[in-house]
Design a protein that fits this description.
The complex is a heterodimer of chains A (287) and B (415).
Chain A: E1 6-15, E2 18-28, E3 33-37, H1 44-51, E4 59-64, E5 67-68, H2 74-77, E6 80-83, H3 95-105, H4 113-119, H5 135-147, E7 153-157, H6 165-181, E8 184-189, H7 192-198, E9 201-206, E10 209-214, H8 216-223, E11 227-234, E12 237-244, H9 250-258, E13 263-268, H10 273-281
Parallel strand pairs in A: 3-8, 3-9, 6-7, 7-8
Antiparallel strand pairs in A: 1-2, 1-4, 4-5, 9-10, 11-12, 11-13
Chain B: H1 7-23, H2 26-45, E1 54-59, H3 62-75, H4 80-88, H5 91-94, E2 98-102, H6 106-114, E3 118-122, E4 127-130, E5 142-144, E6 149-152, H7 157-162, E7 171-174, H8 180-197, H9 225-254, H10 257-261, H11 268-294, H12 302-326, H13 330-349, H14 359-363, H15 367-379, H16 383-414
Parallel strand pairs in B: 1-2, 1-6
Antiparallel strand pairs in B: 3-4, 3-5, 6-7
Helix pairs in contact in B: 1-11, 2-9, 2-11, 3-4, 9-11, 9-12, 9-13, 9-15, 11-12, 12-13, 12-15, 12-16, 15-16
Classes of the chains: A alpha/beta (287), B alpha/beta (415).
Chain lengths: 287, 415
C-alpha cells in the first residue's frame, strides 16, 4: 500500500468527565519512527490503546494500513505489534513458549522464535521460564513478542522505561532495525534522549493535545537558540563564554577563542527537547 | 509462515496455553491430585450397607424366662398348645428389625454394654464373649456385635406378670451415648410387654399399617453412607475446580496477559470461549474420573448422569469466571470463591439428612444438580423423574454462566 501506515484524524477519548485525548491528528509513514513525547497522564497510552483496538475513540477517525480501527478488523490486528508498558508475559511459560503461543494467535505455523530471541539477546535463556528473568530481560521479551509477527506497524509504549543504559541501547538498536525493515513505529516515551535518538519526528503531547509535531532538528531550530559555550583556562580557574551564532562578529570571536592556547572545550548549546517542551507547556517531561 | 487464522485455531491455541498454565500451577495441581486421591480413599472406607435392625441385649435368655414360667402358666390353665407356642417363639426372628442377643449372665451383659467385654456372634448364632484386655484372640467366623442397650429381666418375670405380682423389677442398661429417647422407648416397651403378658388389652388401637410414613418410605431401602456420599463426592470435585479455574482467570486479568492476547487477531469471544471450554472440560473430566472410581454409572443412567455433571461443570465454570473477574488479588479471589462456594455446598448436605429440604435450600442454584445426582446414583431416577430439576438447573446455569461471562467481559474491557 502507499500512504501513511498510521493515519489519525481528530480522535478523542474521555474517561467520564476527564478528557484524556482531545482531538489529535498525526500520521506515521512506513519505515518512520514517530516519538510521542509527554509526561505521565498526557494521553500517550490512551492514544496507543485506541490505535491498537483496546478501546474505541469517542470521536474522530483512525486508520491502520488504510483500514478503520473501529471496525474490529483481525486483518489489521495481524499486522501490528504492541509492546506494553506493563510486562504482561506468561510467567510460568518459557521465553520460547511465550513467543510460540503469540505466533500461533497470528496463525504463524513455523515461527522464527529463536531468531527473534537471538536479536534481543535472550537465545541462551529461551527455555527458561519468564518468572526467573530480570526486569531488563522481561523488557527484552516484551520487545521480542512485539516483533514475532514481523509487524508492519509497531506500537511501543515506554520500551526502555527503568532499564539500565546497556539494555536500553540494545532495545533501541532493535527498534531502529525494525524501522529500517519498513515498519512504522509509534514510540511513546517521556525520555527526551530516547526520543531524540530514535525518532524521525517528534510529537509533544500535553493534557491530551499535540502541542508540537516536527523533526527534532526543526523543533530545536524553531524553539532553541544557536550558540556555543567555550571553556577557557584562566590561571587556576576556568572561564566560560557563550557566543551566539547569529549576529555580526560572532565568527571572528569564535575563531579567536579557538586559536587561544587556553581553550579547553567548545560545545554547541542547542535546546534539548525537554527545554522546548517546558517552553511550550510550562511543565517538565518527568511529571 | 503465516496461515489462515480461524476462530477455531485461535481458541485451540488459547486452550493449549490454558492447559500449560494449569499444569504448571503447583498449588492447584497438588490440590486437585490430593482431592482425587482423598475422595478415592475416603470412598473405600465408607460403609457399603445399612443395618436397619435394632440390636437389643436381654438377660436371661428368652428360653429361660419361658421355661421358668411354664409351670405357673399351666397352673393358671394354659393349654399344652399354648405352652408349645411359647417354646417355638423366637422373638429375634419374628420381630422385623429387632435382633435380640441373649445373655446368661446379667453381669456379662452390662460389661459388654459398658465396653469392658466384647460380644461376638458366630454364623450359627452362638454368642462368644471376648476379654480383649486379657489378650484373648478374636473368634473366627464370627461378627462383632455393637450393643448399646440391654434389658435384665428377673428369671420369673413372665410368671410374676401373669400372676399379677407387684414390685417386679426390670432394669434397662444403656451406654452413655444412647439417646434418652431410646432409653425411654425401651422402658415403655418393657411396660407394654408386661401389660400384655398380664392379659390386659391396650387402651389405644393402631391402624393395620402400625405406622404411616409421610413422604417416600425408605424403610428397607435405606441408602448406605457410601451411596449417599457418591453424589456428594462428585459434587465436591466440581466445586474444587471453581477454585482452580477462578485462579487461572484472575491471574490472566491481574497480570494483564489478556490485554496482550487481545491486540492479536484473537477477540474477547475467543478468550471467553477458551476459558469456558477449559473450565468445563477440567471439571467434567474430574467428575467422570470420580464417577468411575466411586461407581454409579450404569447402562440405564449414563446419559442422565453425564448431562447433569456437564451442567454442573458449566455452572461452576460460570461461577469461576465471576470470581476470577471480581478478585483483585489472591485473598480477594479466595474471599469471593468462599462467598459463592459456601452457600452452594449446602444442598449437598441434604443428602446426608434425608427428608424434605427446606424451601431456602431448594432455592440454591446447586440444589437441582445435587437432587438429580442423588436421584440418579441412589434411587435409579430416570429422565422422566428428573426433568423438573434439570429445567430448574438449566435456568440457574444460564443465570450464573451469563453473569460470569458478563463480569469477565466487563473486567477485561476495563483493563
Amino acid at each position: 500500500m502507499t500512504g501513511p501506515a498510521i493515519q489519525v484524524e481528530n480522535i478523542a477519548y474521555s474517561y467520564g468527565d476527564l478528557q484524556a485525548v482531545k482531538g489529535i491528528s498525526f500520521d506515521v509513514q512506513p519505515g518512520e519512527i514517530l516519538g510521542f513525547l509527554g509526561p505521565n497522564g498526557a494521553g500517550k497510552s490512551t492514544t496507543i490503546k485506541m490505535l491498537t483496538g483496546q478501546m474505541s475513540p469517542k470521536s474522530g477517525v483512525a486508520r491502520i494500513l488504510g483500514r478503520d480501527i473501529t471496525k474490529d478488523d483481525p486483518e489489521v490486528q495481524a499486522q501490528i505489534g504492541v509492546c506494553f508498558e506493563e510486562k504482561n508475559l506468561y510467567l510460568n511459560m518459557s521465553a520460547l513458549e511465550n513467543l510460540d503461543f503469540y505466533a500461533s494467535l497470528f496463525g504463524i505455523k513455523d515461527p522464527d522464535s529463536m531468531e527473534v530471541l537471538r536479536r534481543v539477546g535472550l537465545a541462551e535463556r529461551a527455555k527458561d521460564r519468564v518468572h526467573s528473568f530480570s526486569k531488563g530481560m522481561r523488557q527484552r521479551m516484551m520487545i521480542s513478542r512485539a516483533f514475532i509477527n514481523k509487524p508492519k506497524v509497531l506500537f511501543l509504549d515506554e520500551p526502555t522505561d527503568g532499564l539500565d543504559p546497556v539494555t536500553s541501547a540494545q532495545i533501541r538498536a532493535t527498534i531502529k532495525e525494525e524501522a529500517e525493515r519498513g515498519a512504522a513505529v509509534l514510540l511513546t516515551t517521556h525520555d527526551m534522549f530516547e526520543a531524540d535518538e530514535l525518532s524521525d519526528r517528534v510529537a509533544f503531547i500535553n493534557d491530551g493535545e499535540i502541542v508540537a509535531l516536527d523533526t527534532a532538528d526543526n523543533l530545536k531550530l524553531k524553539y532553541g537558540t544557536r550558540s556555543v559555550k567555550v571553556r577557557l583556562r584562566d590561571g587556576d580557574s576556568v572561564r566560560e563564554e557563550h557566543i551566539a551564532l547569529e549576529g555580526d562578529g560572532s565568527s571572528a570571536r569564535l575563531a579567536e577563542l579557538a586559536a587561544s592556547p587556553n581553550l579547553m572545550t567548545i560545545h554547541t548549546e542547542e535546546a534539548t527537547l525537554e527545554n522546548i517542551f517546558i517552553e511550550l507547556t510550562g511543565r517538565g517531561l518527568a511529571g | 509462515m503465516s496461515g489462515p487464522v480461524t476462530r477455531a485455531s485461535i481458541v485451540g491455541s488459547l486452550l493449549k496455553k490454558e492447559l500449560k498454565a494449569y499444569s504448571r500451577d503447583k498449588l492447584y495441581v497438588f490440590l486437585t491430585v490430593l482431592t482425587l486421591v482423598a475422595v478415592t480413599i475416603l470412598f473405600q472406607f465408607l460403609p457399603a450397607s445399612v443395618n436397619e435392625s435394632i440390636t437389643l441385649a436381654v438377660s436371661p435368655p428368652i428360653t429361660t424366662l419361658v421355661g421358668d414360667a411354664k409351670d405357673t402358666l399351666k397352673g393358671m390353665g394354659a393349654t399344652d398348645e399354648q405352652l408349645a407356642e411359647l417354646d417355638n417363639a423366637d422373638l429375634a426372628e419374628q420381630q422385623e428389625g429387632l435382633l435380640l442377643i441373649e445373655f446368661d449372665s446379667e453381669a456379662d451383659m452390662t460389661k459388654v454394654i459398658e465396653g469392658t467385654l466384647e460380644a461376638w456372634r458366630t454364623d450359627d448364632g452362638e454368642l462368644i464373649l471376648r476379654d480383649k484386655e486379657a489378650g484373648e484372640d478374636e473368634p473366627e467366623n464370627a461378627e462383632k456385635l455393637g450393643l448399646d442397650i440391654g434389658i435384665a429381666f428377673p428369671p420369673t418375670f413372665i410368671a410374676d406378670v401373669a400372676t399379677k405380682q407387684q414390685d417386679i423389677s426390670v432394669t434397662v442398661y444403656s451406654d452413655a451415648g444412647v439417646p434418652v429417647e431410646i432409653q425411654s422407648a425401651m422402658q415403655s416397651f418393657v411396660r407394654e410387654a408386661a401389660y400384655q403378658l398380664a392379659g390386659e388389652e391396650l387402651p389405644v388401637g393402631m391402624p393395620d399399617e402400625e405406622a404411616i410414613v409421610l413422604g417416600q418410605d425408605r424403610s428397607g431401602d435405606q441408602a448406605a453412607l457410601r451411596d449417599k456420599m457418591r453424589p456428594m463426592l462428585i459434587f465436591m470435585i466440581l466445586l474444587m475446580e471453581t477454585f482452580s479455574m477462578s485462579a487461572l482467570v484472575s491471574t490472566e486479568v491481574l497480570q494483564r496477559t489478556v490485554t496482550a492476547v487481545l491486540v492479536t487477531p484473537a477477540r474477547i469471544g475467543d478468550f471467553l470461549a477458551a476459558k469456558t471450554i477449559f473450565g468445563t472440560m477440567l471439571a467434567l473430566t474430574q467428575g467422570l474420573f470420580v464417577l468411575l472410581v466411586v461407581g454409579g454409572l450404569t447402562a440405564q443412567n449414563w446419559s442422565l448422569l453425564l448431562t447433569v455433571i456437564f451442567m454442573g461443570a458449566v455452572m461452576f465454570t460460570g461461577v469461576a469466571l465471576l470470581v476470577g473477574a471480581a478478585g483483585k488479588d489472591f485473598l480477594g479471589q479466595l474471599f469471593y470463591a468462599m462467598l459463592f462456594v459456601i452457600p452452594m455446598i449446602i444442598p449437598s448436605f441434604s443428602v446426608l439428612f434425608p427428608g424434605t429440604a427446606a424451601a431456602w435450600v431448594r432455592v440454591i442454584p446447586t440444589y437441582p444438580i445435587i437432587d438429580v445426582l442423588v436421584g440418579t446414583t441412589i434411587y435409579n431416577a430416570t429422565w422422566a423423574d428428573s426433568w423438573t430439576s434439570l429445567a430448574y438447573a438449566a435456568v440457574w446455569l444460564v443465570v450464573l454462566y451469563g453473569a460470569g461471562l458478563f463480569a469477565l467481559k466487563r473486567k477485561v474491557e476495563s483493563l
